[in-house]
Amino acid sequence: MSNQQVGAVALVALASWALAKLGYSLVSAPKESNLTLYVHEMRAPPDSTVLAAAGTGQNDFTKIGFGSFLVFDNEIRDGPERTSPLLGRQRGYGPISDLQGKQGIQLTSTLVFGRGSSYNGTVSFQGNVGGPEPTTELAVLGGTGDFRGAKGYAIVETVKTSPLGVVFRWTLYLSY
Ligand SMILES: *[C@@H]1O[C@H](CO)[C@@H](O)[C@H](O)[C@H]1NC(C)=O
Ligand SMILES: *[C@@H]1O[C@H](CO)[C@@H](O)[C@H](O)[C@H]1NC(C)=O
């Protein structure tokens, strides 16, 4: 091979390496989603979606406090109204773990996106919800399906409270 040919081969190799690099980085670029959804927690039987399953105040929400253990299967809806389209479920559990019983629950929870949503998968969270602060932040533990390898956080705000239940707005900041 002449020097010119060697140069051309090197150039082609360099170009395909660069393309492969570029292709690789395009394929593996993290996707980002910022989603807003509404979690509806119902407390009035027979539609309750949350249960004081063990500890203080078992079966009586007026008496929950330090040591209560709650289990929930809340609705995820597109909006704050009861009639807003259903997107999935927020399932999980958590204790009230501050001694004064005023800081809400320390939850472990999975958002399960169902048929009504454009996603197929779950995102799991850990953190504190339902205390006196107007907003709280939850950490993403991970995801499945469309959300495999998810990282990020959620900001949770209480938008409606009544004896019948509570509506929370969750804003998710995800990359996966
Ligand atoms: C999501 O929100 C973050 C923080 O506000 C912002 O930096 C990012 O660009 C947003 N991503 C999308 C896809 O909207
Ligand atoms: C949802 O994802 C799972 C795997 O993560 C797959 O088995 C299932 O077929 C998917 N369902 C739909 C409706 O795409």
Automatic annotation (TrEMBL):
UniProt-annotated location(s): Secreted, Extracellular space, Apoplast
Record's signal peptide: 1-20
GO biological process: phenylpropanoid biosynthetic process
Presence of the UniProt keyword Signal in the record: yes
Keyword Lipid biosynthesis belongs to the record: no
Main location: secreted
Self-association and partners: Homodimer.
Task of the protein: Dirigent proteins impart stereoselectivity on the phenoxy radical-coupling reaction, yielding optically active lignans from two molecules of coniferyl alcohol in the biosynthesis of lignans, flavonolignans, and alkaloids and thus plays a central role in plant secondary metabolism.
Family: Belongs to the plant dirigent protein family.
Protein name as catalogued: Dirigent protein
Provenance organism: Ceratodon purpureus
Upper lineage: Eukaryota, Viridiplantae, Streptophyta, Embryophyta, Bryophyta
